[in-house]
Amino acid sequence: MRLTFNVNGRQQEADDVWEGESLLYVLRERLGLPGSKNACEQGECGSCTVRLDGVPVCSCLVAAGQAQDRDIVTVEGLADQAKKRAAAGCAGGACGTTLDEAKQWESKPADGQSGEASTSPLTLSPIQQAFIDAGAVQCGFCTPGLLVAADELLERNDSPSDADIREALSGNLCRCTGYEKILDAVRLAAARAGAETAGTGA
Amino acid sequence: MDFLRPASWEEALAAKAEHPTAVPIAGGTDVMVEINFDHRRPDVLLDLNRIAELQEWEVGEDTVRLGASVSYTSIIENLRSELPGLALASHTVASPQIRNRGGVGGNLGTASPAGDAHPALLASGGEVEAVSVRGTRMIPIDEFYVGVKRNALEPDELIRAVHLPKADGPQQFSKVGTRNAMVIAVCAFGLALHPKTRTIRTGIGSAAPTPIRAKEAETFLAAALEEGGFWENGKIIPPAVARQFAELVSGAANPIDDVRGSASYRRHALGIMARRTLGWTWDEYRGNERSAQCA
């Protein structure tokens, strides 16, 4: 079957999708977006976490056909999403991206190798930068899922408690057991966002 | 494999009537695991995600009609006061990602003895709204689980909703596992006090071929509370009564040894959970909500 859906702000199509295929498989194998990782295939590890209409889900447990006409954000789209979020501001606590803004989204080429490197410098979302700065990346396999989950947490809760962070990340396993640094990274991202907001007097 | 995407409930019922072997998929948290692992190759998948009313709930005067696909996250966020036992159980389901997708309809459809919602549903009491092109059946929750991973649905039926009475008293849920998140219950226990009818209801998970009630324990406790005038005087339940209740709950289970735990451990743990949840609910009934919500 043919699948038409929105990935990181862009309309995408995939053909010859098998009916029993997961969204994760479509993303990785048909669209060439290998950021979302394939590990347990049973929703235990969270390394395939993506946003489905804004909601964090395990993409290995979403049937491809269920993603028809819906909006997906993968780890590849986090930087864009963060940029959009920053531009929109948080006036009145109304974070997020309006439909019009979403329609203007420009995700970078998915393969990242289409001729000349993109003209814009490599940018990371604040949560990605915080993971690097806090040393929260070891083997890196769990990182994309954790980034998507952590980004969503900070979107709805700008000053999460440790308990909030643990709860939000409870569906993501890190087998290097780098959890302490991962918690540090989320705290760091939250603190930086707070400092920025205070700085601008917003 | 065919993938059907009905846009309305009527279309879904028609599709299920035409393809009785079609496997309904909503959150996918059970079905997709089976497909990913090649344990199941349904000839037809029936996607229910486009049917908005399945994700809605209605709070009536006495009951809540909970759409089959209302996510556990929504239950936790929105129905904590009406369905406290189910909300507590929902909070123990897997992880945020799974709770965002899974719902009670799927738990009922799969009918695993380990489904987290079952003990809470049994303790609350209620009915499953099973619908086909032939009409609607209200199946009492007590009659819904008929065997290991088997339920009372006919092949052409789909679960539209569950109808649960709004809590008329304290409810609790307790679950044993190796950690808080991502755990299939070693065993689980739900308890609901129903002060209006002066009855007790219970639910046991992962400790028998199906989710079950501990009916003898319920009858014993209701009688003991009645006899001692406890519903009126609100006195502390004597340890001997709590102990007897725990033993009867333990005895109601029919567990097996498996990778998650031994039968004797499950029996033992059920007794402990029965005693603790009784303490918590009774404290709440007496007006002293326990301060720390940890099971």
Automatic annotation (TrEMBL), chain A:
PROSITE patterns registered for this protein in UniProt: 2FE2S_FER_1, 2FE2S_FER_2
Annotated InterPro entries: 2Fe-2S-bd, 2Fe-2S-bd_dom_sf, 2Fe-2S_ferredoxin-like_sf, 2Fe-2S_ferredoxin-type, 2Fe2S_fd_BS, Beta-grasp_dom_sf, Diverse_Oxidoreductases
Keyword Iron among record annotations: yes
Annotated ranges, domain 2Fe-2S ferredoxin-type: 1-78
Highest taxon, organism lineage: Bacteria
Keyword annotations from UniProtKB, A to Z: 2Fe-2S, Iron, Iron-sulfur, Metal-binding, Oxidoreductase
Organism, as annotated: Streptomyces humicola
PANTHER family reported for this sequence: OXIDOREDUCTASE WITH IRON-SULFUR SUBUNIT, XANTHINE DEHYDROGENASE IRON-SULFUR-BINDING SUBUNIT XDHC-RELATED
One Pfam family cited in the UniProt record for this chain: Fer2
Identification of the protein by name: (2Fe-2S)-binding protein
SUPFAM superfamilies, per database record: 2Fe-2S ferredoxin-like, CO dehydrogenase ISP C-domain like
From TrEMBL, chain B:
Oxidoreductase is among the record's keywords: yes
Gene3D superfamilies attached to this UniProt entry: 3.30.465.10, CO dehydrogenase flavoprotein, C-terminal domain, Uridine Diphospho-n-acetylenolpyruvylglucosamine Reductase, domain 2
Domain FAD-binding PCMH-type: 1-169
Pfam families linked to this entry: CO_deh_flav_C, FAD_binding_5
PROSITE patterns: FAD_PCMH
Keywords: FAD, Flavoprotein, Oxidoreductase
Flavoprotein recorded as keyword: yes
Protein's recorded name: Xanthine dehydrogenase family protein subunit M
